[in-house]
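Re-run with default settings, no changes from the original entry. Doing this only to confirm the output is reproducible before filing.
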Amino acid sequence: MQVLISGAGIAGPTLAHFLSRFGTQVTIVEKASTMLTQGHNIDVHGTALNIINKMGLLTELKKRNTTEMGTRFLDENGKVFADFPVEGTVGSPTSPFEILRGDLADLLYQATRQDGNIDYLFGTTITEVVENSEEKVRVKLSNSKEEEYDLLVAADGQWSPIRKAVFPTDAVQVINKGCYCVYATVPRTNADSDYWDIHQALRSRAVHTRPDNHGTLRFFITTMPPTPAQKQAWDSAARSHNRKTQMDLVRSELADIPYGPVPRLLEGMAEAKDLYFQTVSQIRLSKWSKNRVICLGDTAYAPTPFTGMGTSLAINGAYLLAGHLSQLKEGEHPRRAFEEYEKEFKPFVQEIQNIPWFVPGIAHPQYAWTRWLFKRFIATMAWFVKIPYLAKKYGPKDKKYPEGLVDDLDAPYPQFSGLAQQQVVTA
């Protein structure tokens, strides 16, 4: 079987790894000229962590931990009013397996780049899907070549050009959560903490700083514009892809925030090489495949960062898709595998995407009284999760797992004979 994957992020290389186990020839095209090192903090847990372990990458994943010690909420004066350390706390927003997206992508790339069944083509895109028939899928590449494959996997993100080219517009539902995110890496100073610090400003804004293992600081802001005019301004800036327009808006929006580090962070953001500015949206694709083209990860089911599940869904989906493809007879159309993958995984995806109505608004108070209520709620939660009995009962160090598992199963995890390989870590 010859498979073409568009996108060398998380889902694509994970899928390629498992496809290679049963002899599939895989080509991955990536528009970037090299692996991208930037990216925000992500975590891997549940079934996805067991899949990483099955790949033999758990030990290396641990080595690339961001070193983040926990999560803290700060008031308008920069004073901590609630903290959730990783150690000794149940349910900290910071995971013991926190990693930068770029580091995870590089880990997956390094694990697959020398595989004889896998070829990477950087600086290459699919310019046209020429044919998507019962017999084959034929594409034109940006290197002027025209190639044929047995199937095409669109793993090129929530704004996937492949999905746009193959699927009808009404098959894709984009759910705007009314929130915008601006992200960049800035120089770290000795005054910066080892925690994910969250400062809530009024008018539905939040300033976040997070440490990393590269000697820099990940800085991002999230905002939910309260008026139509403000929302229009953020929409226009996001669509403009103009750095000056975006930075001018960010400066004007944060100018009144008294939180100490903001001026330094804005100055650093202006010089950052990895400024990232976009709306926070969900992607819901009514049917994940069309003939020989299948969508994977954010391309089919971006859940938004608020769920903390985007990376895990990409890994889970890649494993399931590879597993069902491994069950096909030689020469069989991939339709049956596509349908089984969607049938098995979609209910879990829908559950994750069913975000409560008050999210993300609860974390972006518009008024002083709503911020006061949130502070009381979070401070109470921070006290509650430190109760020794709960930490002992549910803490990760005391949890025992069946042989071959390193975390709880939260998503479908069938065992496929074609993907069998000895676990590296047992618990």
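The chain is about 35% helix and 25% strand. Residues 297 and 314 are 4 Å apart (CA to CA).
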